Batch of 4 targets.
Target 1
Amino acid sequence: MDLSHWVSSIVAFVRAGYPTGMPVTGHVPLAALSRRRVSNDEITTITRELIMRRCPPISTADVGVAITHVTNDMPSQDDIDRVQRRLQAIGCARG
């Protein structure tokens, strides 16, 4: 399956579930429902704060709590993994 067919299939799926009577362009309500992803700048901030406040190695639980403090939302496993990879690169994480 080529990329254009794959994208078209996803768009068709989203449009099939889109509420009747809503404009066909501008899927802002749908975007509002998507999960927030921690930005690269936030990962840098979280990593810096963890290093300053915790003695290495820094656990996954520590990372999850730090993400929650920054985002005011439950961290996704993907965000925890991204911070853990950054910490591992500088030698401050378990694993």
Target 2
Amino acid sequence: MIKKLAALFILFGLLTANAQRPGEDEMGAWYMYFGANKVSERFSIHTEAQFRFYETTSNFNQMLLRTGLNYHINPNAMATGGYAFIETDNTFYEFEGEVDSKEHRIFEQFILKNKVWEFLFEHRYRLEQRFLDFGETTDTQHRARYRIQMTLPLTNTFFLNFYDELFINLQDDLFGQNRLYGAVGVNITENSSVQLGYLRNQFANAVYDRLQFAVFYNPDLRGLFNKKKP
């Protein structure tokens, strides 16, 4: 237990030491909800809401709403297709008459899981088709994402979670962004948990530091759909 906690402090120290703030001076925050609700043996529904701020509790940056249908190939492999709506304020300072950009996004992804000793690994491969509306102009973009995530249980209640995700543009400049994340998690019940962590979000010309608070709630809904009629 002591060795695991020491590894956590070392990792957070490295993350903080590498954090730069060329984009802004304020520490921002993302508040997030994720759900995966089984509706049959093979299918589940993904639900997600994220609210992102340039500052920890103010100065709106982005709202993201995402849903999808998961197909569980086996306990360690899953394919998903879905849709997301994103509204973004691209400016740190609020200007009168500023028009937020809007995005409709279609995505396809494949997840593989494996375990090495006590470490639980998850590999997520995602393709996105992005339809952007900037008010006076529109654009269509495509990109690929790869995320490797590692979870380390400390006890039945507490765990550590880390990931690194690379975004690759399929047009123009190849590098989109990279997200490095570390968090402490708490299992509340068998199907719910929370995580408190730090995200270093690096773009080609800026790095943003973000606190993250995430709620995960995954109730099994098969009983609602499989009720027999009297």
Target 3
Amino acid sequence: MDNIIQPVACEILDIKQESKQEYTFKVKTDIRPAHGQFLQLSIPKIGEAPISVSSFGDGWMEFTIRSVGKVTNEIFAKRPGDELFLRGAYGNGWPMETFQRKHMVIITGGTGLAPVRSMLRKFEQEPDYTKSVHLICGFKNQEGILFRNELETWKNHFSTIYALDNENFPGWRKGFVTEFVKEIPFDTFDDAYEVVVVGPPPMMKFTAMECTKCGVPDEKIWLSFERKMSCAVGKCGHCRIDEVYVCLDGPTFNYTRAKYLVD
């Protein structure tokens, strides 16, 4: 029986700078996650951190990481050919069967684009999987924009709105993502649609509220939480909110449940 908490050393194949503070690490591994799952990345004697999978394929996986503490700072010191230790994948991914043959609305803020990137790639590569894809992506400013090449490519496949919170930039609109929810033609979807919202907790809260104002039922909204996940197997209790363990019950949640997950 496999040890679900045993880290495995994996070679770093490539490192790509995405923005001023975020880098994508491509790692050699046979782990095959579901879209929306996370892994624990670690460095011996330093610590570990939960990171969502931003893309994956046969024999490799990508993690888009922001340097925000001791562990991620040490990861940023790594180079191709060095090793990272991985364990997982953990948690519940996106309900892909529910999304199939639906109109998909995906709304992200900042690094919230990373946990849906692999799913967007699937929708791009398999255009018959969904009826349509409406993508709203927001970043604080142009220095924080992730996956620039893919954002351009997705314009050719999806209906897109790209926005910066407080900055004018060619090809981008100015404002918070919440301001653009009303532009989604929900009334044309014949009730065959689902909404995914990922970003900082306040962004998810107010974006979900905007969706409900547009008549979207709670059960059609899905969120992803990244909250203090440590052991990833429901033993340490760091990610617990009331009776919910985010690492086990999430990180993806339906809004009917997620709207009550308040610290």
Target 4
Amino acid sequence: MTNSKSTRQIDREHGTRRKPMRVLCLGMSRTGTLSMFKALSQLGYTPYHMAIALRNPRHSLGIGNEAVDAHYYNKGARFTRRDFDAWIGDFDAVLDVPCVLLAEELTAAYPDAKVILTSRDPDGWVRSCRETILVVSSWRSWRVLRYLDPDVHEMMKALDTWAEITDGWSKSALLRHEENIRTLVPKEKLLEFKSGRDGFKELSAFLGTEVPEGEFPRVNDAKSGLFISVHRQMRNKTIMKVLAKVAAGLLPVAIVGANFWYSGKR
């Protein structure tokens, strides 16, 4: 039952679980999660990824920020199955941030789900983070826009928090995260998926699905520039939205001022 006095955004959600949670892909961001997102979609799953959250940051990242704050900073109650069902009940698989930072809560909420740990060369991972996440989060325009747009506010709060949790996306944080997943999940329920090496053969054998035709999707959004391009488009769209609001607010003032000036000329 929703607590009418609660200040948590998640407690105002009315979603329910519409399909069983089947897969928790808990590999850290930049370990091939977008490729895995496409692969799971191809196998008939409905995965939740940061790419989905960015469609509505104020809502999705707002809830994600609450969950992360509760876990790492003891701000409010940690998320339970009811909370996850209300948030991501339309999805039967999860990947990427913010969900991968909530491994303890997710594995407790969905003990029957199979777990995938995507991984890659740690040094390559650090380099990828520097070329994508750290580049985007360094744009000065975000620091202004976060005070003018609620979507950017939630996104920047998320980026700042994730950077703090991962020690600036450090190699030691990656290794610490991966070891935590191995500790949490029994070996028989865990697939350690090596991005760039493993493919549909390993994934389908673990999930019990038929191996689809065609190659496993390999998405290198750092090399292609897709990651930077998507965030640049988001930033530019936000700038135009803010400017439109400013213009709309100034228009009445301009009309009154013009009328006053014209009246004084008569």
